[in-house]
Every structure is written in structure tokens, then in C-alpha cells.
Amino acid sequence: MTLRAGIVGCGGISKSHAAAYDGLDNIELISLCDINTNALNNRADEFNIQNRYTDYEEMLSQENLDIVSVCTHAPLHAPITIAAAENGVHVLCEKPLSVDLETADKMLKACSNAQVHLAVSHQFRFTPLFRHAKTLIESGIIGELRSIREVGKGREAGFELMEMGVHYFDEMDFFMNGISWIQAHITYNGHDVTTADIMHSSKLCTSDRRDNGIVAGDTMLIHIGGSSSTYGIMELYPRIQRHGWMMGPHLLGSNGQLMIKPNPTTGFDELWYCPFDVSFAQYTPDWELLELDPSEFIISGKSWKSRHTIWSTKNIRDAIKNGTQPELGGQNAITSLECVSATYTSHFTNKKVQLPLEKRYHPLKKRLTTGA
Ligand SMILES: NC(=O)c1ccc[n+]([C@@H]2O[C@H](COP(=O)([O-])OP(=O)(O)OC[C@H]3O[C@@H](n4cnc5c(N)ncnc54)[C@H](O)[C@@H]3O)[C@@H](O)[C@H]2O)c1
User: How far apart are CA 220 and CA 231, in angstroms?
Assistant: First the structure.
């Protein structure tokens, strides 16, 4: 049976979801929805989709969909996901899953009550290079995995945390086999962030259109504790993208290093290996490019070499087909957002914060309303 798919939100990332449905077998993009008719018609014309809606509730009740991609900004992820669940439709939701844990829990509950999947689209971990890097680590190529370092794309940290930070938390969760705790420090204009520095994401970051709710700080240093004594370090600070985005993990082991970064010219990820546990200029030439067999990137006859949505879409398609849980479904859908809450809680309490969090409210909203 071919699964029927729809997309809500026809902006930037919807192209990647539409191409994913186009590129996968046993699933077909049937309908699109956007309140902006230009965005809707442009995407629909591009992928030759006839069924077009400006109201997602109407689309969900009329199209008998099996799965919907939620591709709006974060504050709308919850109402659209809950409406999908009420119509018996599985959900592949863009990151961040929501703006706080309270609403994310409601999304998960609605999907679980309706017995449909809710998966979040952190596609990095599903790509062949990330899978290969994990296999290499497990085979001992870099000894014991000691730490993982990530930097942001250069936007203000409070905004970046919701855009790239959640991807990095997921990536660390993947390589470390689980995140145990978070310890963070946040500054704004050079001083420690206080309640007075909490603001809407559109005020903090004026260079990006996306709404990420209430955020704080332009610079963050986040320590992430994993299982088996592996640590993550995330540094988010305003920076110039001299060589492209440079997003991707630097994995340091007791006996070597691995790095996955997009090639600044092609945009395709590359996996590099260095047989030394510390970066020492003299040995820099010993970094070696590890190439995978090109067949690893092929899905239905086409090569997908970038961190494309097709990799997370394939995972949820297979879960629906096989009656299994998607890898980033169930409680796993919430982990990266939980790390966001823990980051702010850690800064304001000056403590290491254990996961999972008992308190589900938005730590910044709570401070704004109660002062603590
Ligand atoms: N996984 C990734 O790598 C990745 C990459 C880019 C963006 N994203 C995420 O995807 C989400 C969307 O980002 P984007 O860059 O595509 O945003 P965008 O601004 O380009 O598009 C959002 C679209 O949603 C539409 N919309 C708003 N309200 C709507 C409603 N009620 N019903 C239907 N449509 C509505 C808007 O008109 C707009 O066309 C964000 O959460 C972002 O973080 C993920």
C-alpha cells in the first residue's frame, strides 16, 4: 500500500520534505497547505501537487493522509501535530519539536492516544556518514570516545540553540548513547544573562525570520554529560561564516579523532580521520578523508549525499510499514528540547541539571512571570 503524505508549511524546509516523499518508494505526496498562497502555489507547482489548502484542519480532515510533515515555525508545531493525531495521521515534525516541554508532552500524548507516531526530523543521525562514524567509533578506531565539540552557525545563541543546538543535542545523544546532564553558562552583551535579558527570538535575532518563542543570551557554553564518561561541548556565539557553516561533530577519542563537516564548496558532508588524540599542528597533514562506497548514498536509484530530510523520512516510513517505533519517536522525540530547558535551568540555578526534567514548564517564561 502506498502511504499518502501531506505537508503543512510550504517555506524553506518544505522543499526537502517534498523531495523526500518524491524520492521514496511506497509513499506519495498528495497535498500541501500554507496560509500564504504564493508559498503554497510555488511549492505545489514545483512538485506538481493538485490538492492545495490554506487551512490545515481542512486538509487533515479531507485528505485521508497517513503522514503529515509539520514544516511551520516552532509555536505552530503543537496545534498542527495535535490536529493530525485527532485525524489519525502520523507526524514527522520539524525541529525544534515545540517551544517548551509542556506543549511537547501534549503532542506526544495526543499521538500516543491516537496510536500514531510522532517523530522529530533530526535527519543528521540517519545519514550514511553519521552511521559510518558511529560504527567506526564502536570498532575502536579512535580509542575511547572522550568528547564531541560543536559550534553554531553564528547567530545569537538563544536563537541558535533552537535552530542548530537541538540538532547538536540529538547528534550527541546519538554518539554518546544517551545524555545524562547539562551544565551551561549564558551571557548577553558581555554580562551574565539575567531575567531582564529574556526576550522573544525575533528581537534577539533580527537576521532570521523564524519564530522560536522566548529565548535569552547571545553567547552560550554548554557542557553535556553522556553515558560512559563521554562529554559534549557546544559553543554558540556570534561568528562570521568564513568557510561555510562548519556544522558537524568533532569527535575526540583517547587514540584519535573523527570530524564530519560539509565541504564548503560542494556542501556535501565529509568524514575525516586523524590518528592522534590531541590536535597538534605538526600532525595536521595526517588528517585523512574517509570515503564511503557511493552506493551507500543511493535511495531508489538516486544519490542523497547531503543531510537531507529523506533520511529521517525513510525512518518513519519504515516504522509505519513495519509497525515499529521510529528511532526519534516516543520519548526520544523530546530529548533535544529537554536539553534546551535544561540549558536555561542550569544557567539560572548555577547547577548541573539531570535529565529527564521533572519540571515541564518553560524555564524562561516561568522566570518572567514569577521572577524565579
Ligand atoms: N531539519 C532541518 O535541517 C531544518 C532546516 C531548516 C528549517 N528547519 C525547521 O523547519 C521549520 C520551518 O522553517 P522554514 O525555514 O521552512 O520556515 P519558513 O519561514 O521558510 O516557512 C514557514 C512556512 O509556514 C507557513 N505557515 C505559517 N502559518 C501557517 C499555518 N497556520 N498553516 C500553514 N502554513 C503556515 C508560512 O506561510 C511559511 O510559508 C522551523 O521549525 C525550522 O527550525 C529545519
Answer: 16
